Amino acid sequence: MKDCDVAIVGAGPAGSSAAIALARRGYDVVLIDKQQFPREKLCGDFVNPINWPVFENLSVAEGVLAQPHGEVSGFRITACSGEAAETSFKAAPQQRAIGLGLRRAFLDQVLVERAAELGVSVRLGSRVEGLIRAEQAWRVALGTEEILRAKLIIGADGRNSWVAQHLGMNTSSSTHGRSIGFQTRLRSPDAAQGKIEIHLFPGGYAGLVALGDGTVSLGLAIDRATLPRARIADFLLAECLPQNPHLKGILSRSERVAELRSAYPVYFPRRRCYTDGAVLAGDAARVSEPISGEGVFFAMQSGLLAADTLDQALRSGEVAADVLRRYEQRCVRAFRRRFVLNSLLRMAIYRPYFLTPLIRLAEKNSRILSSLVDRVCQPQAVR
Asked: Which secondary structure element, helix H or strand E, spans residue 134, and what is its range?
């Protein structure tokens, strides 16, 4: 049996960021994931410029830039009726003003490798099959028959978090939602060059970003009521998305080079993210927001906040739920304004009758779109 200070379930951006932060503080950390890395992950593959201060804090910025990627310096949005508006990213002094088109498999690998460099014990391809709290510690049983004993647990194992379900941390059992998410890659060397693009179509929206290797990531969210029972990929790519003339042109020049993956629902109700001796981070805590491409930022930042809270708990020896509740409170404070903004964006993007006139107005007055994009994409200091 291996003893450790913190066992982290899930090695995505939230779990790896927490592992890095805790390892730098001298804690013995075990990072567990049921998948072998690198692994594909349904994601829009857009790294928002707001992530650079976090990357610098984690000392992974150069490692991220060393991966195959496309540079993104602006934003473009189009409507089915043909309107289009675009703007460039701006940055505060001494901050990077670019985003990246970067496959999640590469980003996650960089973060995991950084954690391993700092002495984190990484267990990839290991599924957690048992989690029992006894004598002020957790007994963690892995499918590899290894047993861990940890003082604290971080569940960073995604939106359908096994840790959250096992520990009774769901505030709602509902998994119903309006939208289904899809993602694939297209070979389309001339598409989305230098920009993250959002294209509206009846029932949803699609995001495109170039990945620097002649392919683009195509992610979309669509009202599930509009989908047929069969041949969904053909319906989306041949009938649904081409209703936007900009998408139609791109798709006519493109070849699909990856399977179409899906996730449902796109949006989840919030859940409590703390209990005695454990917290949730990233998608498991449901702090992600796909509408604005900030999911990686929310995940990493929540991982850092979780690490900071657990550091304080370990130092004080107080790990009860009423103490760890500070973590949820800090997440609420840190993300409140962005949550409000994203809620408004989500409300607008499914209402083309409302958004199309705004795109038309933004074509004539670039300040409207620039102000909005600055709020979503301008880097901010890590707290």
From this structure: strand 128-134
